[in-house]
Amino acid sequence: MATSGSFRYQAMERVVFGKPAAQAVSDEAARLDAQRVFLLVSGTLNRETDVVAGIRDALGARYAGEFQGIPPHTPRDAVVRAAAAARALDADLIVTVGGGSVTDAGKVIQICLRHDVTDPAQLDNYRIAFKADGTPSAPVYEGPTVRQVSVPTTLSGGEFYPLAGCTDPLRKVKEGYRHDLLIPRAVILDARITVHTPQWLWLSTGIRALDHAVEALCSPQANDFCDGAALQALRLLGQGLPRSKADPADIAARQQCQIGVWNSMVPIQGGIPMGASHAIGHILGGTCDVPHGYTSCVMLPHVLRYNRGVNGERQALVAAALGQPGREAAEVVGEFIAGLGMPRTLAEVNVPREQFALIARNAMHDRWLHTNPRKINGPQDVLEILEMAA
Q1: 174 and 216 assigned to the same domain
Q2: pTM strictly above 0.90
Q3: Three-class HEC string of the chain
C-alpha cells in the first residue's frame, strides 16, 4: 500500500441525486445559463419511454435539438455525425442521457466542437497513444468551451472521469481521449429512469463498477483514503445489485447501486491505476465487440486468481466487503457474478480461441496492463489469463 501520494480533484461541480431527471436537467441548464441545450440520448430510451420528452419539455425554450442512437463502444463516425448536429444548432451545453457509450460520445463531441473535427481521421490528433511498454503519450490541446451534463442510465461510471473511450472501427481498437475538462460539469443520478435499462445491461455494468472497486483495492498503489470509497462501493453494490435483480422496481436498491458506482470511481479519480481486468476488457470491447460490462463479468475472477500470489492479503478485503470473509476473492466474486445470471467465460460472449493471440498483442498497448499487481511480461502472460477465462 502506498504511504504517500496526492489526490487530484476533478473539474466536476456537483452530483445531483434523488431528484427527477427532467427537473434536475432544467435546473442545471438555468444554473449554467445555457440557452441552446443539445440532447445526446439513447435511441431506445427516446423511442420507447417518455424520459427524453420530459427533459425536452422541462427545458422549454432552452432546448435546441437532439441526436439519438450512438452505437456500443462509441464509434468515431457516429461521434463526428453527432458533433456536426450539435455544431449546426450552435449548442452551448451538451446533455447526455443514456449509458456509457452515450456518455463517452458526449466527451469526444466536446473535442470535435472545440477543434472543428469534421472527419473521423482527425481524431488521431487527440487520442492517447501507447508505446509497447504501456507508456502513454497524450497530446496537449485546448479544452472544450461547450461542456457536458450527464444523466447516466447504466452503472459503468464513466461520467465521473475525464477520460473517454472511442472506437476506431477501421482498426477495431478502442482508444482513449483525455482532458481535465472532458468530465461533465454535473452528473444527475435519477434511479427512477433506470427501470427502463435492460436488466442484463444494468447488472453487467454494475459488475464493471465492482471491478473498479476490486482493482483499486488490490492495486499496489492503494491508499487508506481511496480504500474507504472502494470498500463502501463493494458493500453498496454487493447489496444493491441482487436486490435490483430480484425486484427491478426497487428504486432504493437502484439508487444504492448508483451511489456505489460514485464511490467506485473515487480511487480512479485519485490516480489509483486499474489492472489486467480493465486492460483486457478494453480490448475485448474494441476488438471483439463484447459489451464492456460483460468484459468485467468474464475477466475479473480470473485476473484475481492470476494475481492472488502477490496480493492475497488485499484480496481478502474484497471477500470480506462482499460478506464472505476468509474465502478466496476469486471464488466469491465469481459466485456473485453467476448469481446475477451474468456470463463467466469468453465462450459465453462469443470470443473464440482464434482471437486470443490478437487480443493478447493489443492488450500490451493498454496502460493498465502494465500496472497489474503481478507483472505481465508479454503477450504469453495475457494468453495465460485468457485461457483461464476460455
Answers
A1: no
A2: yes
A3: CCCCCCCCCCCCCEEEECCCHHHHHHHHHHHCCCCCEEEEECHHHHHHCCHHHHHHHHHHHHEEEEEECCCCCCEHHHHHHHHHHHHHCCCCEEEEEECHHHHHHHHHHHHHHHHCCCCHHHHHHCCCEECCCCCEECCCCCCCCCEEEEEECCCCCHHHCCEEEEEECCCCEEEEEECHHHCCCEEEECHHHHHHCCHHHHHHHHHHHHHHHHHHHCCCCCCHHHHHHHHHHHHHHHHHHHHHHHCCCCHHHHHHHHHHHHHHHHHHHCCCCCCHHHHHHHHHHHHHCCCHHHHHHHHHHHHHHHHHHHHHHHHHHHHHHCCCCCCCHHHHHHHHHHHCCCCCCCHHHCCCHHHHHHHHHHHCCCHHHHHCCCCCCCHHHHHHHHHHHC
